[in-house]
Please model this.
Amino acid sequence: MSSLFEAAGLEQSTSRPLADRLRPTVLGEVVGQEGVLGPEGPLARMLGERRLASLILWGPPGCGKTTIARLLAGAVDLEFMSLSAVFSGVADLRKAFEAAKQRRLMGQGTLLFVDEIHRFNRAQQDGFLPYVEDGTVVLVGATTENPSFELNSALLSRCQVLVLSRLDDAALETLIARAEDEAGHPLPLNDDARAALKAMADGDGRYLLNLVDELVRLPPKPVLDAAGLAAVVQKRAPIYDKSQEGHYNLISALHKSMRGSDPDAALYWFARMISGGEDPRYIARRVARFASEDVGLADPQALPLALSAWEHYERIGSPEGELAIAEAIVYLAIAPKSNAVYKAYGQAMRAAKETGSLTPPAHILNAPTKLMKDLGYGAGYAYDHDAEEAFSGQNYFPDGMPRAKYYAPVERGFEREAAKRLAYFERIRAQRADRRDFDDDEGAGE
Model:
């Protein structure tokens, strides 16, 4: 891999970080991104045609975004220019575009690589548009954030988004083997420690090689186990940003695991969020929401238990209080599920908007004044407790609005009993309606 450094007039010195010394010099050496770089991937097709569209490389830290951009430039004979949105401003962009214009006049194209492109504001992102459109630069932006949220639509429409993956165990093992070849000896780790090393990297190849850079300097003996490794290197905090997409991905995974009645997966995602620094109160709120939205009346104890877990956390605090939330998560995951109330509420809200300001039927209106009594308020109201079975069967919908049915309980948990009660009330209502119709007919006959 020395050719790249020699071409740049650099020595492949061991004083440089290992991650830099082992940086791939051809695309075929990039690991873990077969979906993008493989024979059927989008980049293979472009490079086969000796062309390159403007790209957004979206992926986690240490997955190879910068390396891929640099190698793409060489593959299609473009001058590589690099900017970081963290350290660059409008003046830097103008200089880059002007240099690309001059290069173009001499027949040389430019690949402008912008790291952390999502950190540019909307106006700065718009500044790329004319230069991308007229071919002054081929833009390759790198971002760890969802481009749909962080990049404006005009820029996105001119770029192809390629999703890069976190490096899996096989890719990380390849990097370790390359480091061992470069060092000329294996790392002093047993199998458990080697697995723990890859787990510490959490899919980040650069971070892994930075750890390995320390480990290759250790003597061959003693061979470290996982505990020994942890004592030598500092454990990495999980990649988790409470304000960005990872936050929403993990809470979605927790919610859907509970909905899918999988308590083990639900506990795993809960643990991932807690270990990443998530506020347990946020999770407790979502658990309470789940109780009413996804369990509902299939288990009437679900919501009180979720609220009790939330209150328990508020009183006990961390770390003991998280156990109550975990208990609620397991309970809700194995509880019978019903979203019947959730759907019924939505239908009722739509009906309320459609029917506007229809008033209740007169017989269920209060009549605190004589005028209201004279107008018929409350006339004919049947007090349900005085009726047989404490059920009058009267109509409570507005006059002129047909009776609607929103709540349809499922045949699970307590709602099975609720369905029986509703069917029972419906039979009584129908019987009394028939009786009223008969009485009306008899009265008309007289």
Residues 1-14 have pLDDT under 50 and may be disordered. The longest strand covers residues 79-84.
